[in-house]
Specification:
The protein is built from 9 helices and 8 strands. 38% of the residues are buried. Strands 1-2-4-3-5-6-7-8 form an 8-stranded mixed sheet, sandwiched between helices. It is of the alpha/beta class and 285 residues long.
């Protein structure tokens, strides 16, 4: 009897998930925009139907996809029919401090000088290649870009400036402290100097664009304004306020997930990943 139970358990384990994904890595692809070789990982349904069109997710920090459990989370959610099959493209990071940031200017320390070039690579080279090579759904609403920390800042910057390509941005522990003046300066101001907040304030409303944010209550210890709330949460909530003032609606265009005891690491982002994928691609996305 026990032997039969073990056999049934083994068969059950083999049977799930029913929607497997295959991973293909493209390496040594030179781009003149970044003056380097780029590596990307493309995850597609193992039994991809080329007569169908699939939603697209571009991920910064693609080297973290395994530790954030991207593939297994997508497989599980597809198997459980929470999301449809999607195509996921993870871009391996190089010099994160220079290629991530906001495209319109570097920060006060000269970081982010290649952020505009990186955005141009995503928009003019990577996305056209993926949409040519794979059966990607044409609807902008089905195209999302996401990232972690500085990669999250990069993702929202690219989405914000390219509404003709992306309809959704996912930001895990976003580095929204990114600023044009050192916070230690007597002239520093959260209102004037945080670059993504400034960009949203000066920008225009793009109908249909949606944003998803995650922070952990232990993302960091810093508290610039001494209000008892860590900076990562303050900076994220202030950006949500800017988006709301611009016309985006909380709970409809904007979603926020705060993870109690969540940290600035892949383990926490793995916990948040199913929530993001469900929001971005689920029935209510």
């Amino acid at each position: 009897m026990q032997e039969e139970l073990n056999k049934a358990k083994d068969q059950s384990a083999v049977a799930e998930p029913s929607h497997f994904y295959r991973s293909e890595k493209l390496t040594n692809i030179y781009t003149k925009l970044l003056q380097r070789n780029v590596e990307v990982e493309i995850m597609t349904p193992e039994l991809m139907d080329r007569s169908k069109r699939y939603p697209l997710l571009i991920l910064n920090d693609g080297q973290d996809s395994e530790s954030v459990k991207v593939k297994e989370t997508v497989e599980r959610l597809v198997h459980e029919k929470i999301i449809p099959e999607i195509i996921v493209v993870g871009v391996t990071a190089a010099d994160r401090m220079q290629e991530y940031g906001v495209g319109f200017r570097p920060d006060y320390f000269g970081r982010g000088k290649m952020a505009k070039a990186y955005a141009d690579y995503i928009i003019s080279e990577l996305v056209p290649y993926i949409t040519y090579k794979y059966p990607v759904a044409p609807s902008v609403a089905s195209h999302a870009m996401a990232g972690y920390s500085l990669g999250g800042l990069s993702a929202i910057d690219i989405v914000w400036n390219n509404p003709q390509v992306f309809g959704k941005a996912g930001i895990f522990s976003g580095s929204f402290w990114w600023r044009k003046r050192d916070a230690k300066s007597i002239f520093y101001s959260d209102y004037r100097d945080r670059l993504m907040h400034l960009q949203v304030r000066r920008g225009k409303f793009n109908p249909g664009m949606k944003f998803w944010f995650e922070t952990g209550t232990q993302d960091e210890n810093s508290d610039r304004n001494k209000n008892g709330v860590i900076d990562s949460i303050d900076d994220t909530m202030d950006l949500i306020t800017e988006l709301t003032r611009k016309g985006y609606r909380p709970f409809h265009d904007i979603q926020y997930l705060e993870i109690k005891d969540g940290k600035h690491n892949q383990e926490t982002w793995a916990l948040a990943m199913p929530y993001f994928l469900t929001w971005a691609f689920g029935n209510n996305g």
